């Protein structure tokens, strides 16, 4: 194994009801004046009180900013930075989905780094740690609470851009499945499939290692066991617990092994067509994996098994193909659209999408099989038609 660095947040607080620990965690971090970062949906539906109440009870001064918008552009972050300028917060709490958590990470960073946020795009561009922050996910999917990435939309070219720095890891992540009970089916499906993509992509990525492999496989197992129940019976706490844990594990695996071409091809769909991140990933997953499968048959056969496929008596190649079949089936089962056509993309858009995706070397270089721009275009065309050909034995 080559030299590898494995990172997670300093502390993970897990389990149903764990959000009540927020006061104690804030005290240990030396906080007095706390800003809760969230979105207006969570503020208006009152879920944010799950974190405000225990903090107020413990006599902290608490302000709330609820202006995070989905797939946030840099301008969203800048407007919030302007608004809180001069206020002496000593702890941020990011309470929400991936967008809220990504904004919180960078907002905390900008408190101690006086730079244009665009100059932080790329790997290791953050000079110093920001103020302390705690992340609390309210969806199960992005894994942002355990990664050191934050993704923003650049409105100048409509491209998703990533800030990657170990300083974006939170001081504490609190993962409480109870907070996800009211998430609607479509969001449960999209975020849950995003988590599955994190697990499958990081398991088959070039930077995968023994440590991340075990974590990724456990994530696939938990998500496979419970995603359908979580989507169609959202009040089922044990399914929500599996999804919360699966998403967390997938996030740890993604943070350390990275992801690949599914994410690279999904980002242009998010930037140009505003397709939600999880939907774009889920839609592309079987098509990219169909392309990738030949590059590592052993690993894909293992994925098939963990996805619950019966691979007894199959050749390694056939077993590996079953993974593609099962991923496609799961995506259909939870109601993800079947083709790019269904998302308002036209055939004429494909060359520009491929051009955009082909530039995302950070992800493409970690994919188990190399891709030319032509390969990317071909995958988009297959996904545009949505006709993944699979017979009843799973042959492609
Ligand atoms: Fe993702």
From TrEMBL:
InterPro entries found in the cross-reference section: ADH_Fe/GldA, ADH_Fe_C, ADH_Fe_CS, Alcohol_dehydrogenase_Fe
Record-linked Pfam families: ADH_Fe_C, Fe-ADH
Its EC number(s): 1.1.1.192
Enzyme class, spelled out: oxidoreductase
Domain Fe-containing alcohol dehydrogenase-like C-terminal span(s) in chain numbering: 188-382
Keyword NAD: yes
Domain of life: Bacteria
Signal sequence region: none
Entry keyword set: NAD, Oxidoreductase
GO function term, MF aspect, one: long-chain-alcohol dehydrogenase activity
Start and end residues of each Alcohol dehydrogenase iron-type/glycerol dehydrogenase GldA domain: 9-176
Similarity comment text for this entry: Belongs to the iron-containing alcohol dehydrogenase family.
PANTHER family: ALCOHOL DEHYDROGENASE, ALCOHOL DEHYDROGENASE 4
Protein name: Long-chain-alcohol dehydrogenase 1
Gene name of the encoded protein: adh1_1
């Amino acid at each position: 194994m080559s030299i590898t660095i494995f990172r997670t947040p300093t502390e993970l607080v897990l389990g149903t009801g764990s959000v009540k620990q927020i006061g104690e965690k804030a005290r240990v971090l030396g906080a007095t004046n706390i800003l809760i970062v969230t979105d207006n949906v969570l503020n208006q539906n009152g879920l944010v009180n799950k974190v405000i109440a225990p903090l107020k009870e413990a006599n902290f001064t608490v302000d709330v900013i609820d202006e995070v918008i989905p797939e946030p552009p840099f301008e969203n972050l800048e407007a919030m930075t302007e608004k809180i300028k001069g206020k002496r917060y000593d702890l941020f709490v990011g309470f929400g989905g991936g967008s809220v958590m990504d904004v919180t990470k960078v907002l905390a960073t900008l408190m101690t780094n006086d730079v244009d946020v665009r100059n932080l795009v790329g790997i290791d561009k953050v000079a110093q740690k920001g103020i302390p922050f705690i992340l609390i996910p309210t969806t199960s999917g992005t894994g942002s609470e355990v990664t050191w990435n934050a993704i923003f939309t650049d409105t100048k070219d409509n491209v998703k851009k990533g800030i990657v720095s170990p300083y974006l890891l939170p001081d504490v992540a609190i993962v409480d499945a109870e907070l996800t009970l009211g998430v609607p089916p479509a969001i449960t499906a999209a975020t849950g499939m995003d988590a599955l993509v994190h697990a499958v992509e990081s398991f088959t990525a070039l930077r995968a290692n023994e440590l991340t492999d075990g974590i990724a496989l456990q994530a696939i197992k938990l998500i496979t066991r419970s995603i359908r129940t979580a989507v169609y019976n959202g009040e089922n706490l044990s399914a929500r617990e599996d999804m919360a844990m699966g998403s967390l594990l997938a996030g740890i695996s993604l943070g350390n092994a990275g992801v690949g071409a599914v994410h690279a091809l999904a980002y242009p769909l998010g930037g140009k067509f505003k397709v939600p991140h999880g939907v774009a990933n889920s839609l592309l997953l079987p098509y990219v994996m169909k392309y990738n499968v030949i590059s590592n048959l052993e690993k894909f056969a293992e994925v098939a098994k963990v996805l619950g496929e019966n691979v007894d008596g199959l050749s390694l190649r056939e077993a590996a193909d079953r993974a593609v079949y099962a991923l496609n089936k799961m995506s259909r089962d939870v109601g993800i659209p079947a083709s790019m056509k269904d998302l308002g993309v036209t055939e004429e858009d494909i060359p520009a999408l491929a051009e955009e995706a082909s530039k995302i070397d950070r992800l493409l270089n970690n994919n188990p099989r190399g891709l030319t721009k032509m390969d990317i275009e071909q995958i988009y065309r297959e996904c545009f038609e949505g006709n993944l050909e699979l017979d009843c034995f799973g042959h492609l």
